[in-house]
Amino acid sequence: MENSQVRVLLVNQREEDCISTKKLLEDARDPKFVLEWVSGYEAALETIRRNAHDVYLLDYKLGERSGLDLIREAIYNGCTAPLIMLTEEPDHGIDTEAIKAGAADSLVKEQINSNLLERSICYAIERKRAEERMAYLAQYDSLTGLANRSLFKELLSLALARAERNGKHVALMFLDLDRFKVINDSLGHDGGDQVLKVIAERLRSRMRKSDTVARLGGDEFTVILEDIGTVQDASNVAQELLQIVAQPVMVQDQELFVTPSIGIAIYPQYGKDPETLIKNADMAMYRAKRQGRNAYRFYTTTMESNGKASQHLAMETRLRHALDREEFLLHYQPLIDMKSGRVISLEALLRWCHPERGIILPDEFIPMAEENGMIVPIGEWVLSTACRQNKEWQESGLPLTSVSVNLSARQFRQKLFVGKVASILAESRLDPQFLELELTESLLFESNGASTNRLKELKALGIKISIDDFGTGYSSLSYLKCFPIDTLKIDRSFVGDIPSNEGDSAIASGMIALAHGLHMKVTAEGVETQAQWDFLHERGCDAIQGFLMSPAVAPEEVTSGFQNRWLEPVGTGAEGGSFSWNLSSLAKRWTG
Ligand SMILES: Nc1nc2c(ncn2[C@@H]2O[C@@H]3COP(=O)(O)O[C@H]4[C@@H](O)[C@H](n5cnc6c(=O)[nH]c(N)nc65)O[C@@H]4COP(=O)(O)O[C@H]3[C@H]2O)c(=O)[nH]1
């Protein structure tokens, strides 16, 4: 026990009990017990209110009142130290009542010996400390010691209620470090943590005791300034915060320069409740970032009313948090082998479950995520979720298939990308042969030898590579033979009008022949009609994907699809032999 002297207050009516208890505790060396005694109920309550003891031993019999009453009253009066009940004889009913009332333990006097009493006291104190520590951890950020998100929200609600009562203003500042990810990536998490600690300390020491500084997570901090006189006051503080954060930080013998972007929303003009105020300060912070970082911006209504630009800003702000708030999900679309009718792969397609708008398709937010770099962490999430999910399916006994994952150029260009893929595979325990990465044509051809090497490293891991949207990238075909590619995916823009459009039909046929000539497989995307199916089948296309078979579906539907209608090949004839397709029944199976 840390504190080697434990102050004990014994409350009972008989002095001889005090003497015997003293004797029991006398031998203890560590901790050393210092026993005090009071006999009356009121005197006991008075002493307990002074909060001067580490533990209380309360007799059940205290004249007209009982020890149970004293426990309840002590707790009601704010007693935080543990209370232990002492009874004359074993009584389960009293024990239970005592514990319910808040006692740490209940002991029968005649059973007590020195050892038992010491242990009971020490356990009670340790348990109390553990509870206090847990309560602290639930409210404070363990890295910086600042208020955490939940305490911050509570304090903000209280601050707004106070401001409403007193007719005052509150400024909420949302502060995010610029390019913190670069620091984390280059110094590692320990280095990043040290930076966060230094910044947290600077913010704390600048603010008054009555102001709140919180860390919401990652590199996001908030400051609540109560009782501000004018907007200029908030401006001055923001200006000062920019300066103190920008002071060099020494970490791992390196001098680093960190800058923040700060968004400010003022209560009550720009948010009457905590949620609105937080959302608006966040949006203003994002505006500061977009306008060059290392700056502060006040939230104004024009940020909302400024048509398309503001919608874009609001969407980007939400997108930045979507990952933390677990708003992304994956749907899966099957790719069907044309010979066997079996599912050979499931393409993971990202969906954003927007709290107000519902499911948003990737075309609406991936370009934004590409532009602001969010695609890198989002893509990592997609990759690990898809691998984990596929492993789960395999372990649950579903037929083995690959999962294919779309890659963005920004992800692929990361220096550590191959290592990341390897560690995701290791974590998910998915056999690499069941992962396929889909890269776009332009991604490969825009870069140089680096892509070839990276592709070779990926292939060396044992995963498959396909070229997505093939035919849309204006690339030189001669490049194709330089890359270790398994599959070409014909873009759906060439599939939509076959067989009626001669040009598209010729292109699709040419692509199939080209891929086969280079010993690659071909998948046609966007197959919606039987005529397209027939055409592609005749030309020897290996696999197809499209609404004719199934749209992308939620993971649960993949399981039920396999169980109900996706399992067996359709038609007659042996696999690989001559196979007569019964497309309408196949399509029926797929569409349920
Ligand atoms: N009209 C029509 N469309 C069909 C048919 N069959 C499938 N599709 C749609 O075609 C898209 C196929 O994916 P993609 O070419 O890789 O095109 C994807 C891919 O480029 C990108 N994307 C999706 N998920 C991710 C991801 O996790 N990471 C990255 N970087 N990009 C992704 O967003 C694009 C659009 O995805 P989705 O909206 O899910 O749209 C999917 C799918 O729903 C059909 O028969 N007819």
From TrEMBL:
Entry-linked Gene3D superfamilies: 3.30.70.270, 3.40.50.2300, EAL domain
Chain ranges of the Response regulatory domain: 7-124
Chain ranges of the GGDEF domain: 168-301
Residue numbers bearing the 4-aspartylphosphate modification: 59
Keyword Phosphoprotein on entry: yes
Pfam families, alphabetized: EAL, GGDEF, Response_reg
Keyword set, alphabetical order: Phosphoprotein
UniProt key word Phosphoprotein: yes
UniProt superkingdom: Bacteria
Domain EAL: 312-566
Alphabetical list of InterPro entries matching this protein: Biofilm_reg_signaling (IPR052155), CheY-like_superfamily (IPR011006), EAL_dom (IPR001633), EAL_sf (IPR035919), GGDEF_dom (IPR000160), Nucleotide_cyclase (IPR029787), Rev_trsase/Diguanyl_cyclase (IPR043128), Sig_transdc_resp-reg_receiver (IPR001789)
Protein name: EAL domain-containing protein
